[in-house]
Amino acid sequence: MGSQSNRTKVVMSADKPDDLITSDNPDHPANLIPSLCAKFWTLGWVTGTGGGCSIREDDLVYIAPSGVQKELMKPTDIYVLSLAAQTDPTLRQRTYLRSPPCYKPSQCTPLFLAAFTRRGAGCCIHTHSHWAVLVTLLLEQQQGDSSKVFEINNIEQIKGFGRGMGKTGNLGYHDTLRIPVIENTPHEEDLTEFLEEAMEQYPDTYAVLVRRHGVYVWGDNVHKAKTQCESLDYLFQLAVEMKQLGLPWISQVTPVGPQR
Amino acid sequence: MGSQSNRTKVVMSADKPDDLITSDNPDHPANLIPSLCAKFWTLGWVTGTGGGCSIREDDLVYIAPSGVQKELMKPTDIYVLSLAAQTDPTLRQRTYLRSPPCYKPSQCTPLFLAAFTRRGAGCCIHTHSHWAVLVTLLLEQQQGDSSKVFEINNIEQIKGFGRGMGKTGNLGYHDTLRIPVIENTPHEEDLTEFLEEAMEQYPDTYAVLVRRHGVYVWGDNVHKAKTQCESLDYLFQLAVEMKQLGLPWISQVTPVGPQR
Amino acid sequence: MGSQSNRTKVVMSADKPDDLITSDNPDHPANLIPSLCAKFWTLGWVTGTGGGCSIREDDLVYIAPSGVQKELMKPTDIYVLSLAAQTDPTLRQRTYLRSPPCYKPSQCTPLFLAAFTRRGAGCCIHTHSHWAVLVTLLLEQQQGDSSKVFEINNIEQIKGFGRGMGKTGNLGYHDTLRIPVIENTPHEEDLTEFLEEAMEQYPDTYAVLVRRHGVYVWGDNVHKAKTQCESLDYLFQLAVEMKQLGLPWISQVTPVGPQR
Amino acid sequence: MGSQSNRTKVVMSADKPDDLITSDNPDHPANLIPSLCAKFWTLGWVTGTGGGCSIREDDLVYIAPSGVQKELMKPTDIYVLSLAAQTDPTLRQRTYLRSPPCYKPSQCTPLFLAAFTRRGAGCCIHTHSHWAVLVTLLLEQQQGDSSKVFEINNIEQIKGFGRGMGKTGNLGYHDTLRIPVIENTPHEEDLTEFLEEAMEQYPDTYAVLVRRHGVYVWGDNVHKAKTQCESLDYLFQLAVEMKQLGLPWISQVTPVGPQR
């Protein structure tokens, strides 16, 4: 996360807030969030202004506004805030280095911040993918704790996930991927404490499902957050189709090939 | 709706009808309807010239013609009419400020007008989405009045809908979204009285399903009509998939988080 | 169909065959076939070089070659032949006004010609849409003649079809759409006699399903062939989904609204 | 495969490795792999960096790196190696004529090489298509050897496959397409021996399914590999849908038309 010098730079540049979102570089967060969201729209992840995406670079956090058509977003729509300022206990209220007029901040903001502060993530994606929603509905039919975690194993795409923050390498083919499920709340920001609880209970997870709502997925950087989110959506879709065909999500498979 | 001065302006500009559909602004209705319809075509909403879209700005109503390939539409294809003139009881017949040659006016015209005059809508979208059609077919299997309204609750995407014309804010997560279903008629314009009846019976609805046909969705402006239409299609798709998986549309969910 | 003067023109222009496929007009058949096929590829209609499209203008018939990747086709890939020459009994063999080097003529050629000569069609589309294939597989499970025709009624999209060659207007909502099904043959050109038989038996049809293979759809012109093909694919998809949900294709619906 | 003169040329050009991936020709392998992978991404074949594609021209083999977002790949991301050098028994380790910095070679490399050396293929595609995965899961439910091969017959799209390396012509409509299934291994390169075994056991196959993982498909050139891969994915999707509708993959169909 950002050094002290970075934070100083931030406060200064906030005098000209539009500098924070003006760049010719397509990989600048203010350009990347709109292009990612347009792509996510075609995937059905951010239908009807639902879902969103946030990127952190050092201390700066870039967030899409609430209620915007995700495939039409522009760099000038982006909010910018200082991560350090959010966690400063002397501050009472969230302050923005840049706030676009005519918009409201995203209700997802505290959830994105949780991924940045508690996991040091560089990007967090929130989708309303109906595959994610269907998986939580199918789990809801089960009794007890088994309804509170999605589990799948022995599928190649599981290798698309890291072993956990601070661990090296990715999950293996025979590992069981576990994604915790939290219950939905009427107000999105009220999900924060439950998301944080799930993060504590599953210290290696890069994602949390929200029942009847969608999923939050993060990663060290945009590349990892996006590819983990794609891999997860692939697995959710596969899981729903497996259920329709009567195939179980957890299996015993006899290992093949050299065991290293 | 348009003031008297607006109407006067309309009648004057009709001397040069092509001025009504000529603009460099991509958000001008004559440019927006073609670009929206091209997008709707890729979503499967306006397959084979079915479905359509109309935008109202003050007194002016812009409508796509009948029988046109929706992904190929051009601004010069657009009909324009004065809303006030349609409701003037001294007029016998619908008159257009601009009529493209070689086309016929859309049969959806009186249904779009109902959304504009009775709800003050700024945009109305009509889709043949097969998710909408399947939902009406599934409801048809039920007995009595339950076949005449689509109901779903406890899904996050429900928050994509307004509480109703003149009310502030959107539906909540635990609210039940209700979309009335009317029976289809052989001639589309004959749907008008049933659509208006449904509007009266469901004063807060922004949409009406038409059995074995599709859905009409409107909103205060293009942004709201489009995002409500997307959210609804998302819910229709989810509902069909829930039915395939044996999951009920209406559920009892124990509230979580602070109740405000 | 082409007048004698048209035919004369054709034979002359065949001295410079590339003139037949060179035009700046995006609606020229040699430009339109590639752009249509690219669109059909994204719809899953012409996967893996399957399917195709042919356009007739007066006496000239434009056909895509065999075995080409449909989303990559170029105007220079197009074959051109004279329709009159094909039906001239003094000719023994099919001759082309223009043959692109390195390609083979499409095996669909005699089937496209059947639509042009027997129905005066201006365009014929052949898809391998898996919705079409699934409908023929579902019908195959039925006994006797009911396996040889796809029937559906009381769906709005049925209005996307004409009543039949030489008849005015389109089918109504309550009409039953009937599409004959013929059995597949190992060699595509051998389908021709069965396609022609089906055309005779169903004089009003604009399409013929081929069991375990796909569908042929035609129309007076490109617009009509394409929109009828889209409407049909929509109905095939709906029919498969209805079957998955236990809903019948043929229903008794009480008429609503004024009966005219 | 490359002659000695080709190999000499390769070793020389490796002095300026970037020449190997620099060309204005869109059909140059270093340009074609990125454009193909972008297309495959939209088809859901290479989600979340999964899957890949390799092209061989004479002795030169072009391979995408590991862990890259497939729709964003650039020519400068491409690895190049000499095929002859890989099979030279005096060499101990794989050497690359060009290695992009910051990347790791694809774990699929030995599997692609197997298609090039054992079948003389010009292109090999590896997808994680969930249709392929679902087919292997459905087969896993069966007892004994029937779980180790996917079989389907009497579907037109089967004609999209060649009869086998060195044989002329394609499979016929009534032929049974057989694609062997191998079990997945924790490390992708460990699949190589099983893939090669399957190639020996099924000398005519152009594809091998990997249980719970995906499929490898190859062909004499890019055109054939891509169209065979598309046709196969079409058949996998159809097979899953047939299973959902209770329709068998293998059928007895009475031949129709002239038998030649």
UniProtKB/TrEMBL annotation, chains A, B, C, D:
Keyword terms, alphabetized: Amino-acid biosynthesis, Cytoplasm, Lyase, Metal-binding, Methionine biosynthesis, Zinc
Function noted in UniProt: Catalyzes the dehydration of methylthioribulose-1-phosphate (MTRu-1-P) into 2,3-diketo-5-methylthiopentyl-1-phosphate (DK-MTP-1-P).
Lineage: Eukaryota, Fungi, Dikarya, Ascomycota, Pezizomycotina
Main localization (coarse): cytoplasm
Enzyme class: lyase
Pathway: Amino-acid biosynthesis; L-methionine biosynthesis via salvage pathway; L-methionine from S-methyl-5-thio-alpha-D-ribose 1-phosphate: step 2/6
Residues binding Zn(2+): 126, 128, 213
Protein source organism: Hapsidospora chrysogenum (strain ATCC 11550 / CBS 779.69 / DSM 880 / IAM 14645 / JCM 23072 / IMI 49137) (Acremonium chrysogenum)
Name this protein carries in UniProt: Methylthioribulose-1-phosphate dehydratase
